[in-house]
Design a protein that fits this description.
With 360 residues, the protein is an alpha/beta fold. The chain is built from 15 helices and 15 strands.
Length: 360
Amino acid sequence: MLRIAMVGDHACIRVVKEALALKARGHWVEILMSQEPFGYNRFDRMTLWHDRNQLIRSIRDSRADIVHVHNEPDWIVGAARAATTRPVIFDIHDLESLRMQTQPNADEMEAFAAADGYVHVSDACKQRADLTHPPHAEKPNCVLPCYVNEEFYPQDPPRSSPDSLVYEGGLHSTQDTTKANGQVIVNMRSWMPVVQSAIAAGFHVGLCPATPLEDFSYVNAGAAVWGPLPYNVMLRSLRPYGWGLVGSSYDMPLMHAAMPNKLFEYLSQGVIPVVYKATAAANFVTEHGIGVVLNSLEDWSGLSDHAELRQNVLTARWDWTMERHIDKIETLYSQVLDLKSRIRGIPVHLAQDDDLGVPV
């Protein structure tokens, strides 16, 4: 058994997914967050922090053998390194330099230098990190997409409607955002062009936003808006829908590389992914015959073979549970602990049930 500190800022569900799977394997898991995540009371310890100094103190007080840090933001990794000599893992949800198409900033550079090992959400994101931060490739790495925990899988999903389409996750009504320097960029969370096109093609569209929307734009466009909802309730709300949107309305390098949470959440509930402008996700659903790639908003004809695709999803979805793949992180932990022990010339500390002291 290892003692693991899952550290992050906002309450990202990826943190909870990994933590629940590690708990199921018998590890002791604590959560250090600036907000209470879903299911926070299921872990061995929960600490809220509000600034860098408090985070550093919390990590120093931690009982963990491994400090597993989730971005964003990236500065948390540097803070963890300042707080402890124990192994620090960098779980890269979102590579800032890929999102913004800029050179890595100081926080990202520090995070890669400070970490002892790395977890990536896709092969494409790992390849970008290898290119942008070459020394990173010499340290232990693994790729673990945002799979869903088995406890959230319905054994027998309800029948779904082939003329219904759902989207869950970050959602904004506005299509453009103006930066302080006057540069106008598209908002990657705006799905209005796709929603309008789907409704025009005859689909009933439901939206489950992660946060409250600013206005009624999507309702006025003809969509039903549900949420925000607790994670487990949100998953259940997906089940009656035939199709689930993945990607972005716009060409965004980050989305082309990503394997989003929602892709595997749809699959877990028996919903067929519809991928738009997301290359890595498109390759995944095509390879396994479990989804449709939407190449144009003028052509929804690919969403015709609902029955066969749904059966493929219902059969194959159990291959992509977090519990079936969490050993990738356990292997990474072992590699990092072994390297640390050899560098320091002392045995690896593995916590026992009766050992509640802070590891050396």
